[in-house]
Amino acid sequence: MMKLTLKIWRQKNKQTKGHFVGYTMNDVNPEMSMLECLDVLNETLIEKGEEPVAFEHDCREGICGSCGFMINGVAHGPERATTVCQLTMRHFKDGEELVIEPWRASAFPQIKDLVVDRRAFDRIIASGGYVSVSTGNAPDGNAHLIGKDTADRAMDAAACIGCGACVAACPNASAALFTGAKIAHLGILPQGKPEQDRRARGMVAQMNTEPFGSCTNIGECTGACPKEIPLEVISAMNRDYLRASWKKRDDDVRTVRPMTEWSTGSKLKIDPNATS
Amino acid sequence: MTLDSKLPSGPIETAWQRTKFDLKLVNPANKRKHSIIVVGSGLAGGSAAATLGELGYNVKCFCFQDSPRRAHSIAAQGGINAAKNYQNDGDSVYRLFYDTVKGGDFRAREANVYRLAEISVSIIDQCVAQGVPFAREYGGALTNRSFGGAQVSRTFYARGQTGQQLLLGAYQALERQVHEGTVEMYPRTEMLDVIVIDGKARGIVARNLVTGELSVHMADAVILGTGGYGNVYYLSTNAKGSNVTASWRAHKRGALFANPCYTQIHPTCIPVSGDYQSKLTLMSESLRNDGRIWVPLKKGDKRSPDQIPEAERDYYLERRYPSFGNLVPRDVASRNAKAVCDEGRGVGETGLGVYLDFSAAINRLGANVISERYGNLFDMYQRITDEDPYKVPMRIYPAIHYTMGGLWVDYHLQSTIPGLFVIGEANFSDHGANRLGASALMQGLSDGYFVIPYTIGHYLASNKFAKADTSHPEVRNTVASVQETIDKLLSIKGKRTVDSFHRELGKIMWDECGMSRTAAGLEKAIGQIRALREEYWQNVNVPGSSEDLNQSLEKAGRVADFIELGELMCIDALKRNESCGGHFREEYQTAEGEAQRDDEHYSYVAAWGYRGPGNEPELNQEPLEFNYVHPSQRSYK
User: Fold this and answer.
1) Which of A70, A90, A112 is the last residue of a domain?
2) B224 close to B192: Cβ distance less than 8 angstroms
3) pLDDT above 60 (res A194)
């Protein structure tokens, strides 16, 4: 068993100021994951009548992309190619202090504690991150032969889980690795070729509309990426974007306004006497 | 209640073609006048929402996660079956149909399964066209691997991340429709009830998980693609958020729940290591292609695996099932693992584990080839256990993975509430009592891309929809009851956390309604679950308020539903006095310890109706007929 101090960012909501709160844990099993460690902390907080720490998680197998926070300033913590759900506590030393805080980026507005709003990523995908093939339109699966090397390179880029670590790790909070990964995945494959220009222009335009910073080729993103998406995808994005802008046609690119509100505004009035 | 399953008559080979022709169509100009709600954004819900949007319907899609791309379909590893016969090894639509009916231990509907096998071929084409990077041969053709329960190679895959890539394909198609304006996406929004007006599903009540606001959404039809209920066991391979709430609340409004006791235990998961354990991690079944499963011959042999000579190892699956070997179906592999552990021959500290050994394959093919096939799985295993599977055999043990039961649907995938359709794992229809590997992805996408777009059109074209708005008394009643449940959960302020109840429920379910079941155990479990429910509503402690992000409150509602479902599962398992597929009643087994069905008395779907809290549910039976694959004792020897 290990003793650890967790200094965790607590923030009720976007409107309220946040602060760090220190929690001492005396019996951390080195086999448990970082998220299981937070589970144990939360159970004790609830029993003491305090609010548990809100954090995002779902599959706990490193594939859904829900989880993620900074541990001592490093996105997803110290292990390479590992999300916090698969980060076991054996990688920390007895008596260590861990500073845990959410992704920090204007494009990822705060929701609560370690939970942030990553809808900007969905909007980037919606702006062209697909092959426009409606259900029923497809030729036989083997109609296009695709060399193994090509399929493998596409898969390397397609492995992105959309967790946002790249943005959190980047000093500029750029979304270039995320956007480039999708542009590269689809651009490498013959199925994605017909829309290659349109896709690059659409996705880059949306990325620029969101409050992400610009890429200055620092490379922190790929180091933090739990799926080790290679930096080349950013060159692929730049190449596609440049070529597309050069050949620019007037079918205009439509971006959407970044939406940061959650409230639907139409608060339902419930009359408690309505049941009858 | 008489169940009208709307099964097509005539030859099964043309049944779906003929049905499609008979289904009414909605004129393209009229489609945008119809609104459809899709709850869930996984392979089933996501593909349905995208396709209905492409067709021109007005679609609203809901998910509780922060993005539709997080749905738990993403975690499927091994692959997706399709009867392409690209390997020229004797596969066909009929063979996939046959394998699935047999694999399901003759407890699925033949017509549904045939349709699934037929559509499997189009799914691969659609996904390839979307840019899903399936594994390929050097020559550029799609490649396949083998999976349990089949003697042909028909499983398509994208490394160990097939679910991820298929889901991202559906997600991208969905986001394209969001951009086009045909689909409105509601992330972080949980459906808490279905609104039924004049006997038809006309909308849902949902809670915004960030602000806590309840909202009402009205539509002409509602589709649930909300996944399975494996988390009733607390420890399972399901994502932490996976829950039964949407299905269960629809059940309480009149949708029958079918075969709840059919659950699948996956044989290859990483064993439990401690009390803090929050979930179990699956190692893809595809590993059984090249891994050999064994335990020591002698009881209590504590030597490390490399110290145990070949002659003192028992490759028990190869020994007992020479023709399928390590590739027997999941239920058979799981039960055998439990049996050898019960004999005291299990490995690892807890004795609840068996070896999955790759040394023979590494010697034969080289570590490079093995890494190419399973690299990410090996890395994941090493991250979790701190052991290197290239050098030391993996330790694996069965865990809850999938639920074959679900809301009852007819051939059109419509539940017993008109206008409420159920797709993917949330329905019961295609896998009988045991699902074959790589068939869940196939079913989710078949339902979403290729079945529901036809059958829902028929429903919309055949019915008139009176205007229903949020002022309707049923709407107000439904909202009030949802609010009441939330207020109640927050007001109890008892002594126990939601998770502590959930763990206790999970333990009862795993012990008595897990890999093997007995009448006495099930009766005991029913009593324990009833007591647990009583205690829950008096002693649960849900902190915080209903007006912001409150993860404890979300869990509290879901666990309340799991407790009620757990009781129904035990009742169903108790009522089914036979063993079939994943449902193994110790009283009913062959001399060799295989599951013994009782076709004379139990060849039916058990569809349960809700009769109020604490009341015995109502059993409805839909008889099963087998005209093509004749029920026999399943043999994988």
Assistant:
1) A112
2) no
3) yes
User: In this structure, are A9 and A66 located in the same domain?
Assistant: yes
Q: Are residues A125 and A99 part of one domain?
A: no
Q: Does A54 touch chain B (CB under 8 A)?
A: yes
Residue B548: which pLDDT band, with cuts at 50, 70 and 90?
very high
Q: Is B352 contained in some domain?
A: yes
Over the stretch B234-283, which tens digit does the pLDDT of each residue have? Answer: 999 999 999 999 999 999 999 999 999 999 999 999 999 888 999 999 98
Q: Taking Cα atoms as reference points, which of B360, B323, B355 lies closest to residue B340? A: B355
One domain for residues A76 and A180: no
Whether A189 and A71 share a structural domain: no
In this structure, which amino acid lies at residue B515?
M
* Cβ count within 10 A of residue A199: 26
Q: What is the CATH number of the domain that holds B515?
A: 1.20.58.100
Name residue B403's amino acid. Answer: T
Do B210 and A32 make contact, defined as CB atoms within 8 angstroms?
no
Catalytic residue among B69, B330, B517, B634: B330
Of A43, A115, A131, the CB nearest to B549: A115
Look up residue A158 and give its two tokens: 């397609």
Q: Domain span at residue B371?
A: 265-400
Which pLDDT tens digit goes with each residue over A155-178? 999 999 999 999 999 999 999 999
CATH of the domain at A145: 1.10.1060.10
- Domain, as residue range, for A99: 2-112
What is the total count of domains within chain B? 2
Q: Which residues face B39 on adjacent strands?
A: B62, B224
Q: Are residues B477 and B586 in the same domain?
A: yes
Domain identity same for A104 and A158: no
pLDDT tens profile B205-243: 999 999 999 999 999 999 999 999 999 999 999 999 999
Confidence (pLDDT) at A274:
38
- The radius of gyration of chain B from alpha carbons, rounded to an integer in Å, stands at 24
Strands B35-39 and B58-62: parallel
Contacts of B527 (CB under 8 A, 6+ apart): none
Q: Nearest 5°: CA angle at B489, between B485 and B492?
A: 135
Q: Which of A112, A133, A156 is the last residue of a domain?
A: A112
Of the pLDDT bands very low, low, confident and very high (cuts 50, 70, 90), residue A250 is low
CB contact under 8 A, B158 and A191: no
Sign of the torsion angle spanned by Cα atoms A48, A50, A52, A53? negative
Q: Confirm or reject contact between A32 and chain B (CB < 8 A).
A: yes
pLDDT at A253 over 70: yes
Residue A259 domain flag: no
Instruction: Choose one of B371, B400, B429: the last residue of a domain.
Output: B400
Q: Is B153 helix (H, G, I), strand (E, B) or coil?
A: coil
Strand partners, B257: B407, B608
| Contact: A142, B165; criterion CB under 8 Å | no
